[in-house]
């Protein structure tokens, strides 16, 4: 089933695009991550231009985050005060990211930068996840439980001025910390099309020191609004969002997420984390390889 993507300016097999969305949705349901950090690389591997892949993936993450926010809201798992500060930072970061995106596009380096960022980010995150998972499996087999990490904000966060009380998160810290975290996530979302949950959740736990029962819900709350802002920014400035591509991806991801959630209830969480780490590292290695070998078509034509 061939489908023409007007912004990407190419024809693709619609079932394959739906399948790619289903894969990321499946991973989202199994591992509890947004899946955006794998959606863009998979589309690039299939031949979608990196700029269009990143912009369209961001709009897909917006749709996928809505149901998650509602679910966590019903159980009181969202710190709206913390989320509002991070959303404000994310919107600022989106504006900065748009300037960087346009600058790199004018220099003709945006595709290369997107690939390099993915290699660095996926490689580091995958390595840390693999290390932690292997340690957990070894401890599980030996019968010795790992010491639980203390929930305490980073010393740099404690040194920031103008503290606020975030009651639902159980924190008394400066709002500058979540604001800066939101800015960094907004820049990455604009450049890479990721939701940022796989960066936000560890940062909120081990840098901000937030309570674990509100981390995921607050992260999804921030992701929802920042990806909305990213989608609007791409639509107004880069014009790189392909609505046909985003719709196909969203259809597949919603279906895959339901299947993944059912599977996750039956599998070991520790082993699932190890599998996810391996997938992330394989994708990072494939993207690093793509940066090194010479393509068949050295030159490509892009619409003005």
UniProtKB/TrEMBL annotation:
Protein's UniProt keywords contain Transmembrane: yes
Keyword set includes Membrane: yes
Key words of the record: Cell membrane, Membrane, Transmembrane, Transmembrane helix
Cellular component per GO, a single term: plasma membrane
Any Pfam family hit: TauE
Superkingdom, natural source: Bacteria
Subcellular location field: Cell membrane; Membrane
Predominant subcellular localization, coarse grouping: membrane
Membrane topology per record: Multi-pass membrane protein
Residues passing through the membrane, by range: 12-38, 83-107, 113-130, 171-199, 205-228, 240-260, 272-293
InterPro entries the record matches: TM_pro_TauE-like, TSUP/Inactive_protease-like
Annotated PANTHER family: MEMBRANE TRANSPORTER PROTEIN MJ0441-RELATED, MEMBRANE TRANSPORTER PROTEIN YTNM-RELATED
Family membership: Belongs to the 4-toluene sulfonate uptake permease (TSUP) (TC 2.A.102) family.
Protein name per its UniProtKB record: Probable membrane transporter protein
Species of the source: Novosphingobium pentaromativorans US6-1
